[in-house]
Amino acid sequence: MDHPRLTTRRSAFAAAAHIAALGIASRALAEPTPDEEPSSNGRAEPPGFADLIDFIPHDLRSHIANEWAQVDYSPFLKAALASLGTLGGVLRVPGGTFNLAQTIVVPPRVRIIGAGRATSVFKIAHDGDGFRSEASANAFTPVNIGLAHLGLVCKDNRASGGAGFRDRGGTYVDLHDILVSGFRYGCVLDQSEIVSVDLCQFEYSRDTAIWLVNGPDQTPGAQTTFTNRISVSRCQINQADGFGIIDDGGRAHSFRDNNFNGCRLGHLRLAGYGEYVVDGNYFEESAGPPITVSNRTVRGRNVQRPNSVVIIGNLIIAQAGRPSIVFEGATAVAIMGNTFVGKQAPSINGMNTVESLASDGNAVQNDAGLFEGTRAIRHQRSGELAIDRFERLRLATFPSGARRTLRIAMPDARPGDMSLISFEPVLPLRIFMPVAEMGNVAIELENTGSTSVMALDVLVRVKLMKV
User: Fold this and answer.
1) What is the DSSP letter of 396?
2) 441 in helix, strand or coil?
3) What is the helix (H) or strand (E) element at residue 21, kind and residue range?
4) What region does 184 belong to: left with phi over 0, alpha with psi -120 to 50, or beta?
5) End-to-end Cα, the chain, rounded Å
6) Deepest in the core among 109, 138, 288, 465, taking most CB within 10 A?
């Protein structure tokens, strides 16, 4: 007989083959490498496998095809999960609709896998969380759980005070191809680490679709250093009464290739110290600004301002008279390659709260321009001090052949400094090389056309570089 510690690989492959035969994603069960020892949780045997249908009495199985049936499947689901034991494993959920009158706690090392988010649907018929994973606060606890190809639907979102899925303190959490509809919160990740939320759909949340909690706003005494390495990608986030995503800080958070639509207060709210990447998303109109970057959590707690925010390659559409992005405090911001659509208000507000900005390659379809604010923005890089100043001016009428000098106040400017200048909208004038003076940057403008250029309002951006 083989030693139990040497059977892991063969048994795991056998379980994986069994899952594949039933049409379940093979990634649901990790395959150890040939020389892999049992994991740190002490597992010496392969994970188990269970099918929910085997735990439902025969006389009730026909009811899963009836979405209006009143059967409570909570006891059967709990029994199926318990059958996996402390070693965990995979629970298969067949197609059907399953009413749940109790919160389901997902044990460590368990993956619950359905036949599709519109096919295997859990209807939550109570006022709490649908599914929950709980570990100790302020600790690193590998829970290794996953939900895939399932629908989590609250029967009455106005009665729900819970979340479709909630994790507290867990590490290694995977949500894939999940529909979450009608809860107060779609998903709450409170001190969660190494989390992937991918190809999910969140809709009709009474408050927020996804809340990344960093600190004591949900769990008293929770510290701010455990909500780390979280990715939300390829998700559809619709019609939240509050925000689409609230992120109250942490390390290495990314939001990529998502679509946001109709969230009332805004689509994405970032707050607190941490690194954020917002890449390739489509932000449709919302009543509030699509993106807010702040130094206060959604509950009003003062926190350190975000210290690295990269907003790149997004399409951001704002309602008329509203900005696309509002800054309330941030450091080291890069805004590059985005398309901003709006009118009657600049696309980006609050630049006077930002320290260190890089902005390049953005397409602006907005009659009010890109930036609001006139305060200088300083950034240091590779021994070079660069100062950006944004100034709104009204240029008087330029008769044909007229030449004038425009001076922009730059207290740090000294003769010999390098400077660059740009105008929004682009001026139909000849613009000479700007020259740094003591406390100013001077720009010569000339109308070389045959007709006058009428007076217009412009946003001037001056970049002063001091090496």
Assistant:
1) P
2) strand
3) helix 8-21
4) alpha
5) 73
6) 109
For residue 306 the two structure tokens come to 């975000």
DSSP label of 287? S
Phi-psi region at 130: left, alpha or beta (left = phi > 0; alpha = psi -120 to 50): alpha
Cis before 323 (ω within 30): no
Task: Report the alpha-carbon distance of residue 265 to residue 178 in Å, rounded.
Answer: 24
- Per-residue pLDDT of the chain in tens (467 residues, 90 and over written 9): 444 333 333 344 344 434 333 343 333 333 333 333 333 333 344 569 999 999 999 999 988 987 777 899 999 999 999 999 999 999 999 999 999 999 999 999 999 999 999 999 999 999 999 999 999 999 989 999 999 999 999 987 555 789 999 999 999 999 999 999 999 999 999 999 999 999 999 999 999 999 999 999 999 999 998 999 999 999 999 999 999 999 999 999 999 999 999 999 999 999 999 999 999 999 999 999 999 999 999 888 999 999 999 999 999 999 999 999 999 999 889 999 999 999 888 889 888 788 877 787 888 888 777 776 544 455 544 444 567 777 778 888 989 999 999 888 888 788 888 787 888 777 888 888 888 899 888 999 999 888 998 888 887 878 777 65
- Two structure tokens written together for 358: 């890089």
- In whole angstroms, what separates CA 213 from the centre of its chain? 12
- Spatial contact of 32 and 44, defined as CB atoms under 8 Å apart: no
Whole-angstrom distance, CA of residue 198 vs CA of residue 404: 56
Rounded to 5 degrees, φ, ψ at 53 are -60, -30
3-class secondary structure, 58: helix
Nearest 5°: the CA angle 361, 318, 306 is 65
Reported as type and span, the H/E element at residue 210 is strand 208-213
Query: Phi and psi at residue 140, in whole multiples of 5°?
Result: -100, 105
- Which amino acid, one-letter code, is at 202? F
